[in-house]
């Protein structure tokens, strides 16, 4: 019976992988890294066949030991700045139970398409990606680099896209939809359910796979398309036009929202605020064509239909959190 260890299995992406694996592969033994008992209980009450290992990305010995007993490790947690965690994963996979007679272990690693497209060593995700690739050929590795991820996930902890809080915080602070400069950048998008199906068809060694289903319109048309939904759900007043702003203004509003101080220092380069601002202002035109060659096809295409579900779900969760 294949043993799969999922890291980040409670996340927006990892939660669907867990859901899909337990439903479509009942023969698989699944272990999930959970940061605390409460999260572990949520996972096992929804997926009684899953086992949880309590720890985080700093629990290097635990991660190495768990990987020693796994056939496949799926990392759907954060990748950058966690190189020691990945070294523990690779150490565990390279010294698996059963020694050299055991079947070749497999690591499916989630990266990010931002700044990776150039494959330059200075690109944010590239350092970690090179570390993962260095484990081949002893370990079979695949790197999946999603573009923008949309849609509602069955995750027990993070059902909504990771980008929602930053985007809505900026929309509220600007009191309108916004674009960086003229919004002439486009970003590929993929529904989280389509993305999860990519993990199940990954078979090649030592390769990058971009996770994208569509090349979306320019950001200015994307924000213009979002405007009626933002109005419909009461995030902005009616009649708003798309505001042109600078990247620095967006980065500061991701951090401070309405409390905008133009003299505040810009957020650090390796911060989430800078990362998401880059994603909102840069081109990210990837198509997932390599996955299509493996037989994968997206099923969920309309971004705006997805957002008509996601925005009210996000607002509802925000209300619940404020009431606690
Ligand atoms: N979503 C996107 O648009 C996108 C695009 C490109 C790449 N990616 C990559 O995919 C990754 C996952 O994205 P996501 O949207 O699924 O994020 P998410 O919803 O925030 O999920 C992240 C998961 O990782 C876990 N985690 C975070 N830090 C951890 C730590 N120090 N120790 C143990 N677990 C930790 C979280 O655990 P808790 O549940 O305990 O918080 C959660 O289960 C991202 O970090 C990024 O590298 C995402």
UniProtKB/TrEMBL annotation:
InterPro entries: NAD(P)-bd_dom_sf, NAD(P)-dependent_oxidoreduct, Sacchrp_dh_NADP-bd
SUPFAM superfamilies, per database record: NAD(P)-binding Rossmann-fold domains
Pfam family of the protein (one): Sacchrp_dh_NADP
Domain Saccharopine dehydrogenase NADP binding: 5-91
Domain of life the protein comes from: Eukaryota
Annotated protein name in UniProt: Saccharopine dehydrogenase NADP binding domain-containing protein
Species in which this protein is naturally found: Apiospora phragmitis
Native organism taxonomy: Eukaryota, Fungi, Dikarya, Ascomycota, Pezizomycotina
């Amino acid at each position: 019976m294949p043993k799969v260890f999922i890291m980040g299995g409670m996340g927006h992406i990892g939660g669907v992988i867990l859901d899909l694996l337990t439903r479509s592969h009942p023969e698989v033994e699944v272990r999930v890294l959970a940061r605390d008992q409460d999260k572990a209980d949520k996972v096992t009450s929804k997926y009684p066949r899953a086992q949880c290992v309590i720890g985080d990305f700093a629990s290097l010995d635990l991660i190495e030991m768990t990987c020693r007993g796994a056939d496949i490790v799926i990392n759907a947690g954060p990748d950058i700045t966690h190189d020691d965690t990945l070294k523990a994963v690779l150490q565990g996979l390279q010294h698996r139970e059963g020694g050299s007679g055991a079947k070749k272990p497999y690591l499916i690693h989630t990266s990010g398409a931002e700044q990776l497209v150039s494959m330059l060593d200075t690109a944010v995700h590239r350092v970690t990606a090179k570390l993962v690739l260095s484990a081949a050929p002893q370990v079979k590795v695949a790197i999946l680099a999603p573009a923008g991820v949309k849609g509602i996930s069955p995750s027990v902890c993070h059902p909504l896209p990771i980008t929602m809080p930053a985007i809505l915080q900026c929309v509220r602070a600007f009191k309108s939809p916004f674009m960086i400069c003229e919004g002439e950048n486009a970003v590929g998008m993929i529904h989280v359910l389509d993305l999860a199906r990519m993990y199940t068809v990954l078979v090649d060694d030592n390769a990058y796979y971009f996770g994208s289903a569509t090349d979306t319109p320019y950001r200015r048309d994307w924000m213009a398309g979002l405007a009626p939904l933002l109005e419909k759900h009461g995030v902005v007043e009616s009649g708003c036009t798309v505001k042109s702003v600078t990247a620095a203004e967006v980065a500061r509003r991701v951090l401070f929202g309405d409390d905008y101080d133009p003299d505040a220092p810009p957020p650090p380069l390796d911060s989430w605020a800078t990362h998401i601002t880059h994603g909102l202002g840069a081109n990210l035109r990837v198509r997932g064509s390599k996955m299509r060659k493996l037989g994968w096809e997206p099923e969920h295409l309309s971004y705006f239909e997805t957002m008509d579900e996601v925005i009210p779900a996000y607002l509802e969760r925000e209300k619940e959190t404020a009431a606690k």
